[in-house]
Amino acid sequence: MTSNRFIRAIENQITDLDSKTLKRVLKTIQGPNDVILKIDGKDILSFCSNDYLGLSNHPDIKSAIKTGLDHFGIGSGASHLISGHSQAHVDLEKKLASFQAASIPQAKALFLSTGYMANLACITALCASHENTIIYSDELNHASLIDGIRLAGAQSHVEKHIYPHDDLVQLESLLSTKPVANNQNTLSLIVTDGVFSMDGDMADVKGLLHLAQKYDALLLIDDAHGFGVLGTKGYGILEENDISSDRIIYMGTLGKAAGISGAFIVAHESITEWIIQKARSYIYTTAAPPALSYGLLTSLNIIDAQDGAKRRVHLNHLITYFKKNITLKRWKVVSSNTPIQPIIIGSNEEALKITEELKKLGLYIPAIRPPTVPVNTARLRITFSAAHSIEQVQYLINSLHQIEAELESI
Ligand SMILES: Cc1ncc(COP(=O)(O)O)c(C=O)c1O
């Protein structure tokens, strides 16, 4: 035992987390990401990654990254504004902007290393553009949006309102009591996930845009889980809903359906220019390796091509099949039309137990517990990938039915 009192205090806190079934545990994956993972030397069928199109180990993308490495080397060497902004980043940004061109007039894209950083960048920069900001944020927004709002609030005058999940009536009543149209120094900003990461449901982006127009606000949509998946071409939630406005700031990530890592913001070119000027999480960090951006161009080409369309069709087939055939009594299947199909278990203990039982049957779905989700809503966040087969989904359904029947008989 250490005599360092700070370390002892931390150890006590970790023990406390453990006793409340809230301790998080890292699992090491011994090999590439795929639907079959190797963990502890054993193959296990995974239903928990965000690799929705099954691109994370795609041979064409791998070979593009190898070519990119030969051409651009390994590291970018500096932040974007010093000497890290490579031609590979520029080409990627052009392609990303072209995907949203029908939805955002004068669209320009900005590539960042992660979605977490992109959300911090967007929100802090936007809040720095006006003397006052009023933010309206959905209660189930992703942690990176929440942290962006917190950070922005620490830097400038930001008033925040959390509205009940997808409740546009409540949002409108908040917006209508804060008329900003006459105050040129106040920015109104509505912030939402496109597809909610832990529930899989989609925000009513049409309704949100209508409110943004009516009450003179900007609308930030985090489409981390929609980009590549939604819309006929896979361009995401704006394509899916056929909406267009220069009030929209679109954030997408590239570590999920695009299969690699990174993120981007697409907005009117003056907004992206402002983010370059002001966003500290963009300015003060090393640019991601150009070879990854080079590989991402191949990912985007796949998303845009017949191959991507076929993957989306198969993925939707898996989702429909699962929804049609899963019949649970003890736990609640959340209604969602996206690859995120959560099953709400309730207690942390039971969620952990099911994860263990699934593991015995060769299935890997970690339990998601508070604070990632609200208290008493611990869940299995099941996700599908175009790389799954119908047989694998059927095996998952059978296994869940079997575990439920066993627990019901105790
Ligand atoms: C809705 C949402 N936004 C942002 C992020 C962060 O993206 P990244 O993993 O690229 O940091 C995630 C998940 O990781 C997410 O689920």
Structure in words:
Helices cover 43% and strands 18% of the residues. It is an alpha/beta fold. Strand 7, helix 9 and strand 8 form a beta-alpha-beta unit. Helix 2 packs antiparallel against helix 12 (290-304) and helix 4 (87-99) packs parallel to helix 12 (290-304).
The named CATH superfamily of the largest domain? Type I PLP-dependent aspartate aminotransferase-like (Major domain)
Major sheet details: 7 strands, mixed
What spatial order of strands do you see in the largest sheet? 3-9-8-7-6-4-5
Tell me roughly what share of residues is in helical segments: 40-55%
Radius of gyration: 22 Å
Overall number of structural domains: 2
Q: What would you say the CATH architecture of the largest domain is? A: 3-Layer(aba) Sandwich
Ions, cofactors and other bound molecules: pyridoxal-5'-phosphate
**Highest-level CATH class of the largest domain:** Alpha Beta
Number of strands: 14
- Measured distance between first and last alpha carbons: 41 Å
Topology, pairings included?
Layout lengths: L4 H15 L16 E4 L2 E5 L12 H14 L7 H5 L2 H13 L7 E6 L2 H13 L4 E7 L4 H13 L1 E7 L4 H9 L9 E8 L11 H10 L3 E5 L14 H5 L6 E6 L9 E6 H10 L1 H4 L6 H15 L1 H20 L6 E2 L6 E7 L1 H13 L2 E2 L2 E2 L9 E6 L6 H19 L2
Parallel strand pairs: 2-12, 4-5, 4-6, 6-7, 7-8
Antiparallel strand pairs: 1-2, 3-9, 8-9, 10-11, 11-14, 13-14
Helix pairs in contact: 2-12, 4-12, 5-6, 5-10, 12-13, 13-15
Pyridoxal-5'-phosphate (PLP) binds next to helix 5.
Keywords:
single chain; alpha/beta; Aspartate Aminotransferase, domain 1; 7-stranded mixed beta sheet; 4-stranded antiparallel beta sheet; 14 strands; binds pyridoxal-5'-phosphate
